[in-house]
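quick one: UP5 bound model?
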Amino acid sequence: GICPKPLITFVLGGPGSGKGTQCAKIVETFGFKHLSAGDLLRREMVSDSEYGSMIMNTIREGKIVPSGVTVKLILREMKSSDNHKFLIDGFPRSQENRIAFEQIIGAEPDMVLFFDCPEEEMVKRVLSRNQGRIDDNIDTIKNRLKVFESLNLPVIDYYAKKGKLYRINAVGTVDEIFEHVRPVFEACEH
Ligand code: UP5
Ligand code: MG
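yep, here:
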Protein backbone atom coordinates (compact mmCIF):
# COMPACT_ATOMS: atom_id res chain seq x y z
CA GLY A 1 0.00 0.00 0.00
CA ILE A 2 0.90 3.65 0.04
CA CYS A 3 3.21 4.71 2.84
CA PRO A 4 1.67 7.81 4.42
CA LYS A 5 3.82 10.73 5.47
CA PRO A 6 4.77 10.37 9.14
CA LEU A 7 2.79 12.45 11.61
CA ILE A 8 5.14 13.67 14.30
CA THR A 9 4.09 15.12 17.64
CA PHE A 10 6.65 16.24 20.18
CA VAL A 11 5.53 15.97 23.80
CA LEU A 12 7.39 18.38 26.08
CA GLY A 13 7.18 19.44 29.71
CA GLY A 14 9.36 19.50 32.80
CA PRO A 15 10.39 16.46 34.83
CA GLY A 16 7.27 14.83 36.29
CA SER A 17 4.86 17.03 34.34
CA GLY A 18 3.04 13.86 33.21
CA LYS A 19 4.36 13.36 29.66
CA GLY A 20 4.61 9.57 29.91
CA THR A 21 1.26 9.20 31.67
CA GLN A 22 -0.62 11.28 29.09
CA CYS A 23 1.21 9.62 26.18
CA ALA A 24 -0.15 6.25 27.33
CA LYS A 25 -3.68 7.68 27.13
CA ILE A 26 -3.07 9.21 23.70
CA VAL A 27 -1.80 5.85 22.45
CA GLU A 28 -4.90 4.10 23.82
CA THR A 29 -7.33 6.62 22.32
CA PHE A 30 -5.68 7.74 19.10
CA GLY A 31 -3.35 4.87 18.14
CA PHE A 32 -0.01 6.61 18.09
CA LYS A 33 3.37 4.93 18.55
CA HIS A 34 4.96 6.25 21.77
CA LEU A 35 8.70 6.91 21.72
CA SER A 36 10.04 8.18 25.04
CA ALA A 37 13.58 9.47 24.48
CA GLY A 38 14.33 8.90 28.17
CA ASP A 39 13.11 5.29 27.99
CA LEU A 40 15.18 4.67 24.85
CA LEU A 41 18.26 6.09 26.57
CA ARG A 42 17.65 4.02 29.73
CA ARG A 43 17.28 0.91 27.59
CA GLU A 44 20.51 1.72 25.72
CA MET A 45 22.19 2.33 29.10
CA VAL A 46 21.56 -1.21 30.35
CA SER A 47 22.38 -2.88 27.03
CA ASP A 48 26.11 -3.34 26.51
CA SER A 49 26.28 -0.24 24.33
CA GLU A 50 29.54 1.70 24.07
CA TYR A 51 27.52 4.71 25.29
CA GLY A 52 26.18 2.98 28.44
CA SER A 53 28.32 4.66 31.07
CA MET A 54 28.18 8.08 29.35
CA ILE A 55 24.36 7.89 29.30
CA MET A 56 24.23 6.82 32.94
CA ASN A 57 26.47 9.67 34.09
CA THR A 58 24.56 12.22 32.03
CA ILE A 59 21.17 11.11 33.34
CA ARG A 60 22.45 11.04 36.91
CA GLU A 61 23.55 14.65 36.55
CA GLY A 62 20.30 15.67 34.86
CA LYS A 63 22.21 16.86 31.79
CA ILE A 64 21.45 16.22 28.11
CA VAL A 65 22.92 13.29 26.17
CA PRO A 66 24.62 14.36 22.89
CA SER A 67 22.05 14.80 20.12
CA GLY A 68 23.63 12.25 17.78
CA VAL A 69 23.06 9.40 20.24
CA THR A 70 19.42 10.25 21.01
CA VAL A 71 18.45 11.00 17.40
CA LYS A 72 19.90 7.68 16.28
CA LEU A 73 17.81 5.78 18.85
CA ILE A 74 14.61 7.64 17.88
CA LEU A 75 15.16 7.12 14.15
CA ARG A 76 15.84 3.43 14.62
CA GLU A 77 12.46 3.05 16.37
CA MET A 78 10.64 5.11 13.76
CA LYS A 79 12.07 3.04 10.92
CA SER A 80 11.15 -0.26 12.53
CA SER A 81 7.57 0.78 13.33
CA ASP A 82 4.66 0.03 11.00
CA ASN A 83 2.76 2.95 12.53
CA HIS A 84 3.15 6.36 10.90
CA LYS A 85 1.87 8.43 13.84
CA PHE A 86 4.57 9.14 16.42
CA LEU A 87 4.53 10.72 19.86
CA ILE A 88 8.09 11.70 20.66
CA ASP A 89 8.15 12.18 24.44
CA GLY A 90 10.82 14.23 26.22
CA PHE A 91 12.65 15.29 23.06
CA PRO A 92 13.94 17.73 21.78
CA ARG A 93 15.34 19.08 25.06
CA SER A 94 17.48 21.84 23.53
CA GLN A 95 17.66 23.89 20.36
CA GLU A 96 20.64 21.75 19.38
CA ASN A 97 18.53 18.57 19.79
CA ARG A 98 15.78 20.16 17.70
CA ILE A 99 18.09 21.18 14.86
CA ALA A 100 19.81 17.78 14.80
CA PHE A 101 16.47 15.97 14.52
CA GLU A 102 14.97 18.31 11.93
CA GLN A 103 18.07 18.09 9.76
CA ILE A 104 18.18 14.31 9.80
CA ILE A 105 14.46 13.77 9.29
CA GLY A 106 14.22 16.69 6.85
CA ALA A 107 10.97 17.90 8.40
CA GLU A 108 9.44 19.68 11.34
CA PRO A 109 6.95 18.16 13.78
CA ASP A 110 3.27 18.59 12.92
CA MET A 111 2.49 19.69 16.45
CA VAL A 112 4.05 20.12 19.87
CA LEU A 113 2.32 19.56 23.20
CA PHE A 114 3.61 21.30 26.28
CA PHE A 115 2.50 20.05 29.68
CA ASP A 116 2.70 23.17 31.80
CA CYS A 117 3.05 22.29 35.48
CA PRO A 118 4.29 24.26 38.52
CA GLU A 119 7.69 23.21 39.85
CA GLU A 120 6.43 22.23 43.33
CA GLU A 121 3.93 19.83 41.76
CA MET A 122 6.60 18.32 39.47
CA VAL A 123 8.98 17.80 42.39
CA LYS A 124 6.23 16.18 44.44
CA ARG A 125 5.31 13.77 41.63
CA VAL A 126 8.89 12.76 40.85
CA LEU A 127 9.80 12.19 44.51
CA SER A 128 6.75 10.00 45.09
CA ARG A 129 7.26 7.90 41.94
CA ASN A 130 9.47 5.24 43.55
CA GLN A 131 10.53 3.33 40.45
CA GLY A 132 14.22 3.33 41.26
CA ARG A 133 15.25 5.90 38.64
CA ILE A 134 18.78 7.14 39.35
CA ASP A 135 17.64 10.70 38.64
CA ASP A 136 14.66 10.74 41.04
CA ASN A 137 16.49 12.31 43.98
CA ILE A 138 16.26 15.90 45.13
CA ASP A 139 19.75 16.93 43.90
CA THR A 140 19.26 15.60 40.38
CA ILE A 141 15.72 16.98 40.24
CA LYS A 142 17.04 20.48 40.94
CA ASN A 143 19.40 20.12 37.98
CA ARG A 144 16.69 18.66 35.74
CA LEU A 145 14.52 21.71 36.51
CA LYS A 146 17.39 24.12 35.74
CA VAL A 147 18.23 22.36 32.48
CA PHE A 148 14.56 22.34 31.52
CA GLU A 149 14.25 26.07 32.10
CA SER A 150 17.44 27.12 30.38
CA LEU A 151 17.53 24.71 27.41
CA ASN A 152 14.02 23.30 26.84
CA LEU A 153 11.91 26.45 27.31
CA PRO A 154 13.61 28.07 24.27
CA VAL A 155 12.46 25.10 22.15
CA ILE A 156 8.92 25.56 23.46
CA ASP A 157 9.06 29.29 22.62
CA TYR A 158 10.36 28.48 19.16
CA TYR A 159 7.36 26.27 18.37
CA ALA A 160 4.94 28.74 19.97
CA LYS A 161 6.16 31.39 17.51
CA LYS A 162 5.62 28.91 14.65
CA GLY A 163 2.00 28.36 15.76
CA LYS A 164 2.63 24.66 16.45
CA LEU A 165 2.44 24.70 20.25
CA TYR A 166 -0.47 23.38 22.30
CA ARG A 167 -0.05 24.42 25.91
CA ILE A 168 -1.86 22.07 28.28
CA ASN A 169 -2.55 22.89 31.92
CA ALA A 170 -0.95 19.85 33.59
CA VAL A 171 -2.50 20.35 37.03
CA GLY A 172 -5.40 18.12 38.01
CA THR A 173 -6.16 14.43 37.84
CA VAL A 174 -4.83 12.33 34.97
CA ASP A 175 -8.33 12.15 33.47
CA GLU A 176 -8.97 15.89 33.84
CA ILE A 177 -5.72 16.65 32.03
CA PHE A 178 -6.53 14.17 29.28
CA GLU A 179 -9.77 16.08 28.63
CA HIS A 180 -7.56 19.06 27.64
CA VAL A 181 -5.41 16.82 25.43
CA ARG A 182 -8.24 15.01 23.63
CA PRO A 183 -9.53 17.98 21.56
CA VAL A 184 -6.04 18.63 20.17
CA PHE A 185 -5.98 15.16 18.59
CA GLU A 186 -9.67 15.10 17.64
CA ALA A 187 -9.08 18.28 15.64
CA CYS A 188 -6.34 16.61 13.59
CA GLU A 189 -8.31 13.40 12.89
CA HIS A 190 -10.38 15.03 10.15
N1 UP5 B 1 1.51 11.52 37.73
C1 UP5 B 1 1.33 11.71 36.40
N2 UP5 B 1 0.27 12.51 36.18
C2 UP5 B 1 -0.23 12.85 37.39
C3 UP5 B 1 -1.30 13.67 37.81
N3 UP5 B 1 -2.10 14.31 36.94
N4 UP5 B 1 -1.52 13.81 39.14
C4 UP5 B 1 -0.70 13.19 40.04
N5 UP5 B 1 0.33 12.39 39.71
C5 UP5 B 1 0.57 12.23 38.40
O1 UP5 B 1 4.64 11.27 35.78
C6 UP5 B 1 5.52 11.44 36.89
C7 UP5 B 1 4.89 10.84 38.15
O2 UP5 B 1 3.71 11.57 38.45
C8 UP5 B 1 4.44 9.38 37.97
O3 UP5 B 1 4.62 8.71 39.19
C9 UP5 B 1 2.96 9.50 37.62
O4 UP5 B 1 2.21 8.38 38.03
C10 UP5 B 1 2.55 10.74 38.39
P1 UP5 B 1 5.20 10.88 34.33
O5 UP5 B 1 4.04 10.66 33.45
O6 UP5 B 1 6.22 9.84 34.45
O7 UP5 B 1 5.89 12.29 33.95
P2 UP5 B 1 7.03 12.61 32.90
O8 UP5 B 1 6.79 14.01 32.46
O9 UP5 B 1 7.11 11.55 31.88
O10 UP5 B 1 8.29 12.59 33.89
P3 UP5 B 1 9.76 12.08 33.65
O11 UP5 B 1 10.41 12.03 34.98
O12 UP5 B 1 9.81 10.90 32.78
O13 UP5 B 1 10.32 13.36 32.85
P4 UP5 B 1 11.76 13.72 32.47
O14 UP5 B 1 11.62 14.65 31.35
O15 UP5 B 1 12.53 14.24 33.63
O16 UP5 B 1 12.45 12.32 32.14
P5 UP5 B 1 12.89 11.63 30.79
O17 UP5 B 1 12.79 10.19 30.97
O18 UP5 B 1 12.24 12.27 29.64
O19 UP5 B 1 14.44 12.02 30.76
C11 UP5 B 1 15.29 11.57 31.79
C12 UP5 B 1 16.71 12.04 31.52
O20 UP5 B 1 17.19 11.44 30.33
C13 UP5 B 1 16.89 13.54 31.30
O21 UP5 B 1 16.99 14.26 32.50
C14 UP5 B 1 18.20 13.57 30.51
O22 UP5 B 1 19.30 13.39 31.37
C15 UP5 B 1 18.06 12.33 29.64
N6 UP5 B 1 17.49 12.65 28.31
C16 UP5 B 1 18.35 13.20 27.36
O23 UP5 B 1 19.52 13.44 27.64
N7 UP5 B 1 17.85 13.45 26.12
C17 UP5 B 1 16.57 13.23 25.76
O24 UP5 B 1 16.20 13.49 24.61
C18 UP5 B 1 15.70 12.67 26.72
C19 UP5 B 1 16.18 12.40 27.99
MG1 MG C 1 8.65 10.23 31.23
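The CA atoms of residues 34 and 87 lie 5 Å apart.
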